[in-house]
Amino acid sequence: MATVSERKKTRYIGKRTPKYDALERVTGQALFAADLHLPGMLHGKVLRSPHPHALIKRIDTRKAEALPGVKAVVTAADLPPPERAQGMLGGELLISIMDLRRLTIAHDKALFEGHAIAAVAATTPEVAEEALDLIQVDYEVLPPVENALEAMSPDAPLLQPDLYTKTLGEQPERPSNVATHSESSRGDLERGFAEADLVHETSYETKMVHQGYLEPTATVAHAQPDGRITLWTSTQGIFGIRRSLGHLLDLPLGKVNVIPTEIGGGFGGKIYAILEPLAALLSRKSGHPVKIVMSRAEVFRATGPASPTHITVKTGAKKDGRLTAAYVKLVMDAGAVPGAPIGGASLVCLAPYKLDHMKIEAYDVVTNKPRVQAYRAPGGTPAAFAVESHMDQVAERLGIDPLAFRMLNAVDEGDRMTDDRPYNRIGLKEVLRRVAKHPSWTSPLPPGPHRGRGLALGFWAGATLTSTAHVLVHADGTATLVSGQVDLTGTRTTMQQIVAEELQVPLESVSVRVGDTDSTPYTDLSAGSRTAYSFGAAVHNACQDVLAQLRVHAADHLTAQPEHVEYADGRFWLRDSPDQNVDLVTVARRSTFRATGPICGRGTVTRLQPAPQFAAHVADVEVDPDTGKVTILRYTAFQDVGRALNPTQVEGQVQGGAAQGIGWALTEYYHFEKGVMRNPTFLDYRMPTSLDLPMIDCELVEVPASDGPYGARGVGEVPIVPPAAALANAVYRAAGVRLHKLPMTPEEVFRARQATSAIG
Q1: Is the pTM value of this prediction over 0.90?
Q2: What is the pLDDT of the chain when averaged over all its residues?
Q3: From CA 421, how far away is CA 347, in angstroms rounded?
Q4: Which of 284, 416, 451, 743 is deepest in the core (most CB within 10 A)?
C-alpha cells in the first residue's frame, strides 16, 4: 500500500494541478444526462401525488393513452412481481428493495406529496404534460404524519402497517412508525453523572434541507428488443443503479448497462434509483428511448433531502472541565420509508470527546415526507450542531475557554469511537493546536457591537468499500486509467496525478476515463469521502502492477532477471550495469508482441483501514439587533486532510462543504403546511449566494492516515459538519441569545432576542 509516515519529495502529488476536465466544462462540451438525444427518443413525464398521505382507489389512464403522440403510460402494475425484491441497496444510507419499489412508484398508497403515481412517454414534453392531466386518480385522503415526534405517538396514523421496530430485543407486538431503535453505550452512565460537578441538559431541532445540486435529476433509458437495457444517467454509482434495475425489473445484471454522464452535483443525493426504473419501463413499453428530466420543484419534492432531527444532549463534567458522562438521544425523520442517518449521527455526535461513560439512543422514524438520502456526512451536521452548542454552554458554565475545554477532552490515537472501535492515527489535537496559534482565534474581534466568535468541531469516519482501477500502457508510452468510479469532484485530476507520479511520466501523458458497467470491473459508489482514499489506493496498486509487468519486458530486452532491473523517469537499467538501459517507449512498444504481451495493470482494494477526519471551524459574526440578520465577518476552516494530493481541489471541497453548512445554519429549510412543501424553488428555498458568504479561509493540517495513498484522507464530508454549531456559538456571543433550532433566520434570531428582553 502507498502509505507513508514521512513526506517524501514528489513531482505531482501535493501540487496545484489544473483540473483534468476544465476545458470541456467551460466550453460546454461536457455531456450531462439532459443533453442526450437519441434517434426516435421520447420524452417522459411523471404524475405525482398532490397529497402527502392517501389511499389510491383507482387509476384510469385510457384518455392519456388515446392522446395523439403518447406512446406509453405506466403505473405500479407494470413493475414485475417482487420475486427478487430481497436485500438492501444504497450507499451511506441503505434502503430495502421493497421500500425502493414503494418509492419508485406508488402502489396502493401515496406516502408523500410528489410520490410518483404514473409516468407517460410522448413525442414532445408538451404532449406528455397534457397526458398527465388526462390521467384520472381517485384518492382517499388520509391525515398526514408531519414530524418524527408526532409519528412516534402510539395513536399516530401508520404509514406502513407491516413496519415493526427493529431493536436489540424482541420484535414488538404492534407495528409503528419507528423503524429502528438503536443503542450504543459503554461504562456506567449513572456513575458518570454521579461523579460530575455539573450536569447539563439541552435539546435541539433541525428541519429538512436539500443538497441543492445545480443539475436536476435526469436519465435516458433504451430498452433493446433482446431485453437489454442501456441507461445514461446522472448518478454517484453506476453499479448500484445496475443492481437496482436488476431487482426492480427482474433482469440479470448482464442485461443492464449503466453509462455515467457528467454529474452536476450530487453530495449524496444521487445514489439510489429514482427516475431510472420509470424511464426503463416506458422505454420497454414504447419500444423507443425515453428521457426524463425533473423540474426543480420535482427535485425538491421527490428526490432525497436531508433528515430533520430532534436531539437531546446531557453531559456531566468536573470543575476542571473533564467530561465524566454523556447521553445523546437522536430522533431522526426518514421520510416515507425507513433509512434516516442514525448510524452517521451516532458516530459523529460525541466523536471528538474522550468518554468512559456514555450512551447514545437513536430512532429512525417514518413520516409523510420525501424519503431522505445522504447529504455530505449524513446525520453529522445536526448531531454536531446539538453537541457542539451544548459543549460551548458547558465550558461557559465552568468558566473555561471553549478551545481549552475541547483540547482537555479531545480524543487521541487508541481512544475509542462511539461504536467502541479504537481510533488509528488521527489529527484532532494537531488541528486544535493549529487553531490556538491562528489569528482567527488569537486576534481580537473587529471593533463594533453585537459581534461574536464561535468555535465548533466536526468528525467523519470515512467510507472504504471496494474500488478497482485498470491502467493501460500504450505502445507510445502513454497511459490511460480506466474505471467505473464516478467523478464527482475532480477525482480524475488527482488520479492523473497519482498515475503520473507512480509511472514517473509527464502529466499530459496520462488520460483518465470513466467507463460503464459493461466495460469496467466492479467498483462501489463515489460517496462517504472514499473516492480519493479508496480509489486512489486502487490506482496506486494498478500502477505498481504496471511497473512490475514493464520490468519483465525490460528484463527480456536486456537479457536479465526482472529483480535486477531498476526504473526511474521513463528509463529502465540493470542495477549492476547502468549503461545497459532501455527507455519506456521502447519497452511499451515491444510489449505489444513480446514477452507477456500488452501492459494492463490492475488494482483493487476492498477494506482499507478507516481514515477518520477531524475539523474545527471558527466563525466571526455580527447580528443586527433590529432585524436579527446574521452577517459573517470571517470564517476559517481547519481540517486534517492527511495529505493534500491537490491543494486547490482540497480547498475547494472544504469551502464547498462549509458554504453548504452555512446555508443549513442560516437560511435553508423545507416549509411544510399540512404535509405539502410550500417553497420548492430556489427563489423561496433560500440558498446562500456569493453575497451572503465571506471568503472561507482554509488551514490544511497533514497528519498522514494509517492507510491509503500517500497518507491522504477523504476531505469532502467533514467540512459540512461544524458550520451550524460554529455559527450558533458565534450568534450567542453576538446577540446574547442561544438558538436551539435551525435555521437561524433573521426572524428566529429577532424573536429570540425579543423573548429574552421580555423575560428580562
Answers
A1: yes
A2: 96
A3: 11
A4: 743
